[in-house]
Every structure is written in C-alpha cells, then in structure tokens.
User: Which sequence fits this backbone?
C-alpha cells in the first residue's frame, strides 16, 4: 500500500507539472478599452486645437533671407522697366507674384511694407485702368521708394557669387570669372 500511495503521489506531481498554468496579463498603462482610448484621444485633440500658435510658425527671418528676397524679386521687378516704358500691361501683370513676394520677404519694417503694398496697389490699379502714364509714375515711385536697381554683372570687378546659396547664383548677376 505504501508503494501504491507513493506511485499515485508521483503521478499527481508529474501531472501537476504538465498542467497549464493560469496566465494573468501584466497590468500596463495601455490596458484600456476602446471608450477610454477614444476619450483620451479626443481630449488630446481638444488641447492641441486650443494651441493655434503652433501652426503659425513663419520660418526664419534674417538679414540674409531679406537680402535674398530683395535680390531675386527685386531683379524681376527691375527687369520690367522696358515693359512699363512700352505700356505692356500684360507683362507687368504677369509679374504680380514678384511684387507680392518682394513686399512680404524683402521688407521687414511694417511702415515700409505698408507703403510698398500701397504702391503695388497703385501699379495694379493703373493696369486695370489701362493708364500707361499712371503705370510709369507708380512704377518709378515703387522702385525709388524701395531702392530697386538692376544689378549689372561685371566680371572685371570680381566674382559675382561665392556659393550656391547666394541669390545671384542662377541669375545674370551671378557670373564668375574663370581663367
């Protein structure tokens, strides 16, 4: 009888060893139901929608970016001299974006920017009225007020640009004298 009892105990011990253990899931912070997850997402969206200043970043504003805008768009505006003298309203109207980008990127002072926008509006009012005299007057006022001059490339005076980041790189003003 002792032997049988020992044999039954041995079988019970081995059966217990191979029995599946109850698996309990470890508690984590992500153990939640759909309703809790949806509530948390909605509250996070509400917080983010209350912070509109995050979406109003306008990029870097420096003297270099202002010079680049004045160089690129100022040259496009200066190139309109012959079109304005000929009374070609379509050519000036086609460069409307150059005026807009010059005003927004090339002028940082608010008072000067407001004056430039007013002068731009005068140019395009003359175009709408098909008045060549008013266009010439408004264009010359805009150029003189904002200091827009055509840049002439002169190889004999030196290098036109020094790197690919210079605004003169792919323009007529960006020449490099190579021996």
Assistant:
């Amino acid at each position: 009888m002792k032997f049988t009892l020992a044999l039954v105990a041995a079988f019970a011990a081995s059966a217990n060893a191979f029995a599946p253990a109850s698996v309990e899931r470890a508690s984590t912070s992500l153990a939640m139901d759909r309703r809790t997850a949806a509530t948390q997402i909605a509250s996070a969206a509400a917080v983010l929608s209350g912070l509109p200043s995050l979406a109003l970043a306008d990029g870097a504003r420096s003297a270099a970016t202002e010079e680049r805008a004045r160089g690129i768009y100022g040259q496009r505006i200066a190139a309109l001299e012959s079109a304005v003298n000929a009374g070609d309203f379509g050519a000036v109207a086609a460069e409307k974006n150059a005026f807009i980008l010059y005003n927004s990127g090339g002028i940082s002072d608010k008072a000067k920017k407001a004056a430039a926008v007013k002068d731009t509006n005068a140019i395009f009012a003359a175009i709408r009225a098909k008045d060549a005299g008013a266009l010439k007057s408004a264009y010359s006022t805009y150029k003189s007020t904002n200091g827009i001059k055509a840049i002439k490339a002169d190889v004999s005076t030196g290098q036109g640009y020094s790197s690919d980041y210079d605004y003169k790189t792919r323009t007529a003003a960006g020449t490099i004298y190579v021996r």
Q: What stands out?
A: The chain is about 60% helix and 0% strand. The helical segments are 2-18, 34-49, 63-78, 81-86, 89-94, 96-105, 110-129, 132-146. The mean pLDDT is 80.
